[in-house]
Each structure stands twice: as C-alpha cells, then as structure tokens.
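Predict the 3D structure for this chain.
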Amino acid sequence: MLSELLATCDYIAKRNLCPATGGNFSIRQSGDKMLMSASGKDKANLKASDFVVCNFQAQWLEGEGKPSAEAALHGMIYRLSPQTQCVLHTHSIPVTVLSMLEAHESAIRFHGYEMQKTIAGFHSHEETLNLFVFDNNQHIPTLAIQLMDNWQEAHLASGLIVRGHGLYSWGNSVHEAKRHMEGLEFLVECELTRKRYQK
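Done. Predicted structure below.
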C-alpha cells in the first residue's frame, strides 16, 4: 500500500496541490497505528523513509522525523471510520479561496454535478452533496473533537475542508481516497468558477 501512496503523492505534487512542503498523507497500520508523512518534507520527492509510524493520538512511535502537526486529525478519521485505509490532505488554491469566500457557511453544497458520483454513496447529480467546512484552528486536537461531534453528517462526503487551509479526503483504499480527492477538488473548482461568472 505504501508504494501506491507514494505514486499518489507524486501525482498530487505534480498537480501543485501541496506547494511549499504543505499537506500530509497517511495509511492505516495494524491496531491504532498509522504510517504518516513526516513534518516538513517536500511532497514532490517523498520516499518510504519520509514516513513515520505514530498512533492515532499523533504520538511518534518509529521512523526518522516527527509526525505532521495534523496527525491527530488523521487519527480521528481512522478512529471514527474503521474501514478507512488512507487519508490525503491537500492545499489547492480553489479549496482555499472558496472556503474563504464562504466565510459564514458551515458547508459547501453541490447539486446538479455529474462528478458528485465520484464520491462513494452518491449515485445521481440530483442528490445534494454537503462538504463540511471547519474553521481553522492551530490546536489540531480541537479540530479533531469538532469533527467527532459532526461526524454523522460530515463523513458522507468522504472529505472535509479546513477554512483557508485545505481539503482532507479519505477512502477504503489509496485508490478510493485519490478518487475522492480528485472528485472533490473538481467540484470545488467548478463552484468557484461558477461564482466568477455570476458576477
């Protein structure tokens, strides 16, 4: 699974979705452990040695470097969703900008887009997909608790946005997490473009 994750990280970097060492990626390990990209690594050149093992509470267990500061949010997703095997965190311009434009909204709502069907559980453009937006907080455990409190609705999109920060997306495999990431990034960019033309 790590080799697939490394290929996905390379794909993400080539799309400029994680500039300036931003973003972080993880895969579930046995028990309450995850393998996570170490803090401060250039996402365009990730190697297997750039990942560390930590628990779901973001405590380092082994490897060179330290877990990303956002490891606790990855850990909370794994705790809340036992079937989830991979979490991807990207920093695209469309996600960052649209979440700031919708400064008073708790979710970005998509309706009528065929690409909504890229998200597990959605089967028609006639459904409404709510992508929840959480206000940024440098204290990641606080964000993790907010996610837990809103999980029943937030998890349906297989992703969430931290306002002014970026997108978290996840799946039952690396492949599914990548599909969700691509689908949500596409929908966000469509919605941002639509707002430009509405002016």
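The chain has one domain: 2-198.
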